[in-house]
Design goal:
The protein is mostly helical. It has one domain.
């Protein structure tokens, strides 16, 4: 809903009550609650995948770091 409100174009150069004069008559389409649940579930699933991929990336970075330390060991003084 915020995106819909932000995208409303209006002339702010006039001093008038935009809510009463213009905004209250706008129709903002929303999907039915069942469809909203499907969208939320899809986005939540994507968040889970992103989290798993992030953990995978961290593990690969640690593996790379370990391999680099094996390839180029530092001398202990």
């Amino acid at each position: 809903m915020l995106e819909a409100i932000i995208s409303i174009q209006f002339d702010a150069s006039q001093h008038k009550r935009h809510w009463i004069g213009e905004f209250q008559h706008l129709k903002i389409p929303f999907p039915p609650p069942k469809e909203q649940q499907k969208i939320a579930h899809c986005l939540s699933s994507l968040d889970d995948v992103i989290g798993l991929e992030s953990h995978k990336l961290d593990a690969l970075k640690n593996l790379k770091k370990g391999l680099m330390q094996q390839l180029f060991p530092q001398e202990v003084a």
